[in-house]
Amino acid sequence: MRLTIAIFSILMGIGFAPKLLADQTIFSQTQIIIDDLNSARTKLSSADSYRNRIKALSNLIQKTENSLSDLRSKYRLIKLQTGKLNKDLIFQKEKISKLAGALLVVGQEPLQSKLLHPEGALNTARSSLILSDILAGVRTEAEGLNRDLEKLKLLTNLSQKAEKEMQLSLEIIQTARTTLVKAASDRTDLPQRFIDDPEKISSLSKSSKSLGEFAVALNSLERKLIIPNEPILKNNKGGLALPAKGVVTRKFNEPDAAGIVRPGIIIRTKEYAFVTSPVAATVRYAGPLSDYGMVSILEPSEGILFIFAGLNKVFGEPGQILPEASLVGLMGGENINIETFTTEKELNSGRLSQSLYIEVRRNDEPQNPFDWFEFNKE
Q1: In a 10 Å sphere around its CB, with 0-12 CB exposed, 13-18 middle and 19+ buried, how is residue 261 labelled?
Q2: pTM
Q3: How far is CA 135 from the centre of its chain?
Q4: Which domains are assigned to the chain?
Q5: Cβ–Cβ under 8 Å, residues 159 and 78
Q6: What are the two backbone dihedrals, phi and then psi, of residue 233, each rounded to the nearest 5 degrees?
Q7: Rounded to whole angstroms, how far apart are CA atoms 78 and 25?
Q8: What would the pLDDT profile of 16-33 be if each residue is shown by its tens digit?
Q9: How far apart are CA 308 and CA 328, in angstroms?
Q10: What tens digit of pLDDT does each residue of 215-226 get?
Q11: Between the CA of residue 289 and those of 33, 138, 280, 297, what are the distances in Å?
Q12: Predicted confidence band at 333 (pLDDT cuts at 50, 70, 90)?
């Protein structure tokens, strides 16, 4: 009787254990992303043809980065599924071992002892039924094990394919970004609104103690106009696109941890994020400034300045007129390779590691950027 209860307990413990069902759509979805990424990467591999088409190259890089981000998300799911599947396989193997042990116990019980027992015939019949149930359980578990082993093989192959695609894409993005920087730095097709004195500007940038002081001094400089000052900024105040995608982490005149108040906002962006002109504007300054990193100052209309600070690279020369959505700079970042790109920490971070400072000034008076740009103001 103890044997019957023991084997029944084994059957109950293993027969209704939940099975891991891998999401079959992950295979087709990942393949679609890989195909999109491969297509974008193929276009980027011919980046030389875009040497004088900065916007087209910028769009291709962003498209490739978006597809790469999607693939990394799927890669994370694949890794999670693989981990769960491995645990499930271990559990299934343990269950099969228990079943095999139960078969051994039933098979080793002497037939004579069953027949001599007062209830020997009944116990013998029960043992046969139990043996049949155990054999069925072994077959079921073996089939489940084979299915999960096949899923594990598919997930492993998909993971390796995703890693290869991400490695290739990272390399081509870095190459394309280098091409983009050169193309933006060498651009000569922009109209010139005025000519400034580069030595005076350089002197001001070194002597100014703050961004506000520099902006005021910059506005006081005399310029030799080539094209008359006409309002570039129309009636789109309050609806301007942000220069970079990100999350606002400090609002206008909000003190920081040290209690310092600045008349601007801070946006956290991803590494190497593009910073673009929200509207057609004249470049007033593009270069280093004090502790602000690289700074780009744009003038969309007389007396109005858009100031972007904290960049890693800036493009344009004072006096040049940039079309709307033109690339004015890039945020910084660390060199990324496949080893760091797919670490568990990076896969789960989704971090925005760069800080872009935005300031708007009108007639030298700071304005609240929330009144000029369109973004979630909650």
Answers
A1: exposed
A2: 0.71
A3: 50
A4: 2-185 (no CATH), 194-371 (2.70.70.10)
A5: yes
A6: -75, 120
A7: 11
A8: 333 333 455 777 888 888
A9: 9
A10: 999 888 888 888
A11: 41, 73, 23, 11
A12: confident
